[in-house]
Specification:
By secondary structure, the chain is mainly beta. The protein has two domains: 114 residues, Elongation Factor Tu (Ef-tu), domain 3 (Beta Barrel), CATH 2.40.30; 138 residues, Galactose-binding domain-like (Jelly Rolls, Sandwich), CATH 2.60.120.260. The protein is 6% helix and 44% strand. A hairpin with a 4-residue loop joins β5 and β6. The model has no long low-confidence stretch (mean pLDDT 93).
């Protein structure tokens, strides 16, 4: 359980890196644009955040601790805490640390930490309002962000939906498939009187079902909300599928299921 091994386990840890570090995601998309026309992008790889770290003018105790940590996790991973953001990241140093004498038995230490996809996390991110993004049924270019199998209808505008639109189907076994890069996700949809039961799977594993029925009058329903959550998911490229089950609440007037949006933790 390497995720339990935290390099800097408190905000006062001697192994906390100095402020002024560089942090960010690597470029993972290939972007191109014709001389006249819109821009296109395709994801080429799935990689986590990169931290360029520095420990300036540290004593021998800190130097020796970092050297030991570096050797211990050369073929393993550990947790880096970002206390400024209140987040934990699983990964390892991207190559050897560098140590430069700074005088008076002090050293300047440099290194790079890379977050690795697919690993367990000491504490999964939970600040949805700050760290999550929404994937609608279409982006601003009018491109589908969803792969539809079957007879789905995209309606835009649509009242009480996230972003003003949604897609729906009432054909049993029709599937809406969303590919995303991140951690966990939340499924958003509105409820109304003619909606049925949707089945949700993640990476081929069924996660649960959601009854979209509400007695509110069709077609406005009740405002969209996060109806299903899968928060504790390792960083990676994930595939969510929504399946029309053909089942419904006894009081529902139809078996329609809908894709409004998913909220992706990043």
């Amino acid at each position: 359980m390497s995720e339990q091994n935290i390099l800097n386990p408190s905000a006062t840890s001697l192994l906390n890196f100095d402020w002024g570090y560089t942090e960010g995601l690597p470029e993972m998309r290939s972007v191109w644009q014709a001389m006249s026309g819109k821009a296109y992008a395709r994801r080429q790889m799935a990689r986590g955040r990169i931290y360029d770290l520095a420990w300036n003018k540290r004593d021998l105790t800190t130097k020796h601790s970092l050297q030991q940590w570096e050797r211990q996790y050369e073929n393993d991973f550990f947790t880096l805490a970002d206390w400024e953001r209140g987040r934990y990241f699983s990964g390892r140093f991207d190559g050897p640390l560098s140590y430069s004498p700074a005088g008076n038995n002090a050293y300047n230490i440099r290194g790079r930490f890379i977050e690795l996809p697919g690993l367990a996390v000491y504490q999964y991110p939970s600040n949805w309002s700050r760290d999550a993004v929404f994937l609608e049924e279409r982006n601003g270019f009018g491109e589908d962000l969803v792969k539809y199998t079957g007879t789905w209808t995209v309606a835009n505008p649509e009242t009480n939906t996230h972003g003003g639109g949604w897609a729906f189907s009432n054909t049993t076994n029709d599937i809406a498939e969303i590919l995303y890069f991140g951690y966990g996700f939340r499924y958003w949809c509105k409820k109304q009187d003619n909606l049925g039961i949707v089945e949700i799977s993640l990476d081929g594993i069924m996660q649960g079902t959601v009854d979209l029925y509400d007695p509110a009058l069709h077609p406005n329903g009740v405002p969209t909300a996060a109806l299903f959550s899968a928060p504790n998911v390792a960083l990676g490229l994930h595939r969510v599928k929504l399946r029309c089950t053909g089942n419904k609440n006894a009081s529902a007037t139809g078996t329609y299921v809908a894709y409004d949006a998913i909220e992706v933790m990043q």
